[in-house]
Each structure stands twice: as structure tokens, then as C-alpha cells.
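Dear support,

We are seeing what looks like truncated structure output for some complexes. This example has two components. We would appreciate it if you could run it in full and send us the complete C-alpha cell output so we can diff it against ours.
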Amino acid sequence: GLALERDQPFRVPPGWTHAGRVDPGQPVQLTFALRQRDTARLARLVEAVSDPRSSQYGQYLSLEQVRDLVQPSPATLMTVLKWLQDHGVEDCRTVTTLDFLECHLPASMAELLLPGAEFHRYVHGQRSLVRSPLPYTVPPELAEHLDFVGGMHRFPVERTVSRAEARKDVGSAG
Amino acid sequence: ASFHLGVTPAILRQRYNMTGGDVGLLPNNSQACAQFLEQYFHQADLAEFMQLFGSSFAHRTQVDRVVGHQGHGKAGLEASLDVEYIMSTGANVSTWVFSNAGRHESQEPFLAWLLLLSNMSAVPWVHSVSYGDDEDSLSLAYMERVNAEFMKAAARGLTVLFASGDDGAGCRRVHSGNHTFRPSFPASSPYVTTVGGTSFKNPFLVTEEVTDYISGGGFSNIFPMPGYQAAAVGRFLHSASKLPPSSYYNSSGRAYPDLAALSDNYWVVTNRIPLPWVSGTSASTPVVAGMVALINDRRLQRGLAPLGFLNPALYQLQERGLGAAFYDVTQGCHLSCLDGTVQGQGFCAGPAWDPVTGWGTPNFPSLLRALLLP
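Here is the complete output from our reference environment:
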């Protein structure tokens, strides 16, 4: 297979600990980012509607018009759906723009679908996440139809605002 | 200059010249902030915040719509901050909160938010997001696709504002053992408007602003510099009195932030307790978002389209002689690598655009006038 995100580092953020491999029946939710059509045209359109000097300034598109522009080609939709069906993945839903598929499937099925992936659990206090520390691949014929698969490697970013005490420490160190 | 004991809505509105009349009037205008993980706000905190700090302007005390799950646990400081300050500058504008806790163990909360945008035909015109990750921690395929999602939002006329981050220029050691700066994504996307941070020069007076040394900024290693900012950034690179060594950054990349607002010493009510000294570009971003929502309100009243993706218009203001729309921040530098070469200093603010505070902070009436021009 081909790795779609060969350059995606797998980093377990501080505070998270490995809690072992998940059961084969553990449900996982994967987000398939289907290759969009005509992003170059989308870029030109964004430039036109956002530039006050353009005659098209402010002539925005509805979500449905955006869908008509970016929705994946029939070949992409057919190839990805057939691939999922062939692996028994049926619990999927799409979005209005048709360029994402969100699917629920057991971890064992996901590991067969995405060779190389291995689902493990990571915990941080009361929170628990399932991720694959190993890169996933897709069959070569799928690579041109998928941008990436979400829910595999990235951990959510902790967002923290600082309070004054912490900032003084940083200032002193600086 | 007025004395104060920290940034409150009244102080922000005073500094940015917002009058009591600068509040939302249209029922069909709205603004939003996005929360990730288990970050919840409490309506009661918002009500208390407005009771304490909102007496000088017409405002709402309720978030009108929560998209996603709002837990019943303790309120998060970040969520409280977002809601309280977007509703202080974007006063009286209907406000939504997108709450993406990542409830499923294998969900990516940020991706879940993007999917919501791609699935809802009616969403607020303005979105404030205080979220970011190091570019080098993300795959190219992921960043390029997320960038395309921002293009989709821009095509629909949505304004998406991201905090520039709280680590200055950032720092990382590359394979050679040398240091380079560390850009943050999505702040570095060419299709979002990125907000940096400032502090009052005198922390207890409403005076001119200087850079907040934590304000994120720099140049993307992934996305090339978009045409709309090439002239402004080129001028900075040619005229800056002192620049870090060129090996620390990619001078041909998308440069950020685009503008800034106060990011230091805020008051926030969370879990019914007023807390002082809250800081970060997480504070400046909803402040700017609220102002953009107010400008949309006025544009919609005049039958004009909402501002949409703001950057092309923003970078043209100076060329159109409308530079007074911003208070130019020209003093101070932000953080970077603690090494012998740069000694903790990243970029420094200067006249016009710079990679610490962008164009500067909004002078609301001038910015409104400039952006009301058809």
C-alpha cells in the first residue's frame, strides 16, 4: 500500500500514557478526506469574491454551490465507496459538500482496511483516545482519491491561556 | 490616559474607540467561537461577567446557540474568555458556540469542527478560533486539505480568525542541530485572518500599545506567500533595522499575523469567580472577531455583503490611504530560540506590517469607515 501521511509524526503529548492495544471489536470512527475536484478554480473564486477591486467582490457562494465546485469526481466516490463496501464498512455518513466520509467500524476491520495501522488506547486523567502509533497505508489505486484519513495519529491540542504568574517566569527566563 | 486594573470590555472599547452606539442592531447577524476538548462555558458566568463589566454598552447575556455537546462540568477558562470577549466587542450580536469535545475516542475535534462547517448551510459569518499546532507536527496532506477547507469557508463569505499562538516565533532544533523558528498552523494558512497580541505600554493606563512578547508570528514553511501580502511583507523585510538570521525562517512563506489586539491582563469570570491576569492571543482573537461581526452588521444594514475572507481587503487599506484604520504597533519584539545567535529574540515590530503584530490594532471607527466603502 501507499502511506498518505508518511510525514505525519506520531508524538504522544505530555500527560498521555499508553494503555495497550484496543480489543478487536472496539469501535473506531474514521474520517476519510476524499480528493476534491477543482481546488484551483476554488482558489481563483476566493480571490475574486474577497478582493474589493474585483467585480465579483462579495458575490459569495451557498454551501450547495461550493459542493458543486469541490465535490469529488464520480470515479473518486465510486472507488472509495466500493473499497469500503468490500471491507464490510457500511456505517458511514457524508457531508453536504460530499468530500468527507465519517465511518464507524470495529478496530479489527479498520486495521484490515488500512494496512499498517494498529489501534492503541492512550489515557490522560479521565480522558481516553484511540490512535495508531504506526503509519497506515491504502491500496495504490486509492491514493489518488484520498487526501488523508482522520482519527489515526493526531492528538488534540491542549489549549491553555496563561495567567500572569506563569508569564513572569517566562519573562525572567528570557 | 485612564487608570485601570486590567483589561475589561470597557477598557477595550475605550482603547479601540468604540462608543455606546457601536453594538449590533440586526437580528440576522451572528458570530461564533469554537471550543475543542472538554472546554465548556456557563451562561451564568457570562451573565455575571456582563453584570460586572458590561454596564456601559448594550449587550446580550446569553449565547443563542450551542452546536455540539455542552457538558455540565466546570467551565473552562478558555471557553469563558472566548464567549465573554466576543460578546463585548461584538456586543448585542447573536452568538453561537461550536463545542467539539471529541467525544468519540478516535475523533479529531478540530476535524469535527471543519466537518460541521461543511455540513451546515446557515452558519455565522464570523468565527473565532484559538487553536493551533506546530506545522512540523502535521502532515503536508492534512495541512493542504485543511487549507482547502478554509478556501471553502472563504468562498461562502465566512471570516475565520485564528489566534497566532503564544510562543512568539517558536523554536525547534532541526536535524543539523541548528535552531529554526517554528510556525503554527492554521495561523499560517493563507486563507484565514491571524490575530497577534499586544500589551499596554503602561500596564495600568489606557495608553499606546507595544508588542506582547508571547505574540505568535513568523513565516510558514508550508504555504507560499500569498499575493495580497507580498508588497507589505516585502517592505518589512527590506526596511527592518534588524532581522533574525535568514536560516531561522522562510522569508518566502505566508507571513502572519495579519493584525493584533490587546492580549494581556484580561479579567474573565469563570465558575462564578472573576479572575484577573488572563493573557494570550486567545484573548485578542475574539476581541477582533466581535469587531468584524459589528462591521458586518453595518454592511448588512447598507445592503452590502459581509466582509468574508478579510485579508485582501485588509492589506489594501494602507495602499488606499486608509492606514489610520490601525494603531501601528512599533515597539517590542517577541520570543524565539534561547541560543547564542538570536538570544531569545524573534522578530521586532516596526512601522506598517510586521510579523509580531501585523498591521497593528484596530481603531474601530476608522476601520469601520474603511471597510464600509463598497
